[in-house]
Specification:
The structure holds two protein chains of two kinds.
Chain A lengths: L5 H17 L7 E4 L2 E4 L5 E6 L5 E2 L5 E3 L8 E6 L7 E7 L3 E6 L2 E8 L5 E4 L14 E4 L7 E2 L6 E6 L1 E4 L7 E13 L3
Antiparallel strand pairs in A: 1-2, 3-6, 5-14, 6-13, 7-12, 7-15, 8-9, 9-14, 10-11, 10-13
Chain B lengths: L1 H19 L10 E3 L2 E5 L4 E7 L6 E8 L3 E3 L5 E3 L17 E4 L2 E4 L4 E8 L8 E13 L13 E19 L6 E10 L3 E10 L5 E10 L5 E11 L3 E8 L10 E7 L17 E6 L2
Parallel strand pairs in B: 2-11
Antiparallel strand pairs in B: 1-3, 3-9, 4-8, 4-10, 5-6, 7-9, 10-11, 12-13, 13-16, 14-15, 14-17, 17-18
The chains are: A mainly beta, B mainly beta.
């Protein structure tokens, strides 16, 4: 069990001050104070800067958002360890339908994802419309390969497109569903 | 000094990451640390810290699953989570681990400690038992899309994020031992592909580093690859070594090393030291 004493508190404050002194340019993963060296690993942060957004759709009109759509493609970001040794397993749970659970009105809207609706980009500067160097384009979102995190930018970006198929008699209303991305280190 | 540092290391690492975090652009995700939780018969409790670095509330839920790295016939590694009670792996701990709290809404900048306790069955065999702590986070203020007055169809896909952290429970005598069953090498114009069949011969997961160094006939290093590995059961691991455009002299050979050393991301007091494997193969 971790408990604070003066030595540890002093060390913590020293580490914090040392780290702050690096400012916004800190990219290195090793921070040293005297004989002690800490490797900044600890986190595997999964975030979603941009939703996959179909917006308003029309009855009977199939609507597709391409994985290259800069403003409407879904984006997941995974930030992890700062070395190239570590690989991340990613699994995406995709819905088959969006649900409308309004009062007295229930309906579902078919959504589909093709085997090429996903791009894996390991650069921070990449966007759905302009992927970074080495991006894996046209992957199956249901079968994303394990990918190394800790390239130049310590990041993995996943761009996702999809298609909704409103029926001609699709009820008007608000339809929602979840897209779930699970990430884990394969090397512990 | 080193011993003192080990006890201090994980909290310090978390503080450092928290400080670095404002420099990372993130939306609606949480920060989870550490990346592994170790429990034992001597200390059946553990903790995980979850922080919301964003400027909006995030709903966080904790559940358990079972998932170990597995490979396909080509040596591609994946980790698939099973979260039903039907998991029958003899090393599964997911049915006797509890978490408190299991659901919380984190205000912007807030931190929550999640505690774990293990209640293993009596007389379980020595070794290590595994589960995955699945931390799910999503925007707690997600709004249903407004269909408006136009009787239109509006859609919203909620992006939900999950981080799967390994939890290990250790009891009795622990032994880390890895065996290599087979190694295959294929050569193409621009690539040397190595597939290594590994077998866990111990009673804990083998956590280490796999290094592959490709040399030409004059011992000039062509390329090197280093991958962190965790072997729970048998696994086949593929490593691709690109061959650059140069005047390399054939035949090539590959030095392969698998060892515990070099896992600086794992606290020394949590690493079970095992055997070291080193061998050389000629590329056909």
């Amino acid at each position: 069990m971790f408990s604070w004493n003066k030595t540890k508190l002093f060390s913590a404050v020293s580490l914090i001050l040392l780290t702050l002194s690096f400012g916004a340019t800190v990219n290195a993963q090793d921070v040293s104070t005297g004989q002690a060296t800490a490797t900044v690993l600890a986190v595997l942060a999964v975030t979603a800067p941009q939703d996959l957004d179909f917006g308003n759709v029309l009855q009977g009109v199939v609507t597709t958002i391409a994985r290259t759509n800069a403003t409407n493609a879904g984006i997941f970001q995974i930030a992890g360890e700062g070395t190239v040794n570590q690989e991340v397993s990613m699994h995406m749970q995709l819905p088959d339908f969006l649900w409308n659970a309004g009062a007295g009105v229930q309906d579902r809207l078919v959504v589909a994802f093709s085997a090429t609706d996903c791009t894996i980009d390991t650069t921070a500067a990449g966007t759905p419309a302009a992927v970074g160097l080495g991006a894996i384009v046209g992957e199956d979102p249901q079968n994303i390969p394990d990918t190394g995190v800790g390239g130049t930018d310590d990041i993995i970006q996943i761009y996702l497109g999809g298609t909704v198929h409103p029926a001609p008699d699709q009820r008007a209303g608000s339809y929602t569903a979840d897209i779930i991305l699970t990430a884990a280190y394969t090397g512990d | 000094m080193k011993c003192k540092w080990n006890s201090f290391r994980q909290p310090a690492v978390f503080f450092i990451v928290l400080i670095l975090f404002p420099f990372i652009s993130l939306t609606a995700g949480v920060l989870v640390a550490p990346t592994s939780v170790i429990l034992s018969e001597n200390d059946r409790t553990g903790r995980l810290t979850v922080q919301n670095p964003s400027d909006s509330p995030i709903e966080v839920s904790i559940r358990f699953g079972f998932g170990i790295p597995l490979s396909d016939s080509l040596g591609n590694v994946t980790l698939r989570l099973q979260d039903t009670s039907e998991v029958n792996h003899p090393r599964s701990a997911m049915n006797w681990i509890r978490a408190f709290p299991r659901r919380v809404v984190l205000a912007p900048g807030a931190t929550q400690v999640v505690r774990f306790v293990a209640n293993p069955p009596k007389d379980i065999p020595d070794g290590e038992y595994w589960a995955r702590i699945v931390v799910r986070s999503q925007d707690s203020q997600a709004q249903l899309p407004d269909a408006g007055n136009m009787e239109s169809i509006t859609t919203r896909l909620n992006m939900v994020m999950e981080t799967a952290i390994v939890l290990k429970y250790r009891t009795g005598e622990l032994m880390a031992k890895l065996g290599v069953i087979d190694t295959e090498i294929e050569r193409s114009d621009s690539l040397v592909a190595i597939s290594i069949d590994m077998e866990n011969q111990g009673n804990v997961s083998y956590v280490g580093v796999l290094r592959c160094n490709l040399y030409d006939a004059n011992d000039v290093e062509i390329t090197t690859r280093r991958i962190n590995i965790a072997v729970y059961d048998d696994i086949k691991r593929r490593v691709d070594l690109p061959v650059g455009i140069s005047d390399y002299r054939q035949p090539f050979h590959v030095d392969i090393v698998i060892e515990n050393d070099g896992r600086n991301d794992v606290p020394a007091n949590e690493l079970i030291s095992g055997n070291r494997l080193e061998y050389t193969l000629t590329v056909p």
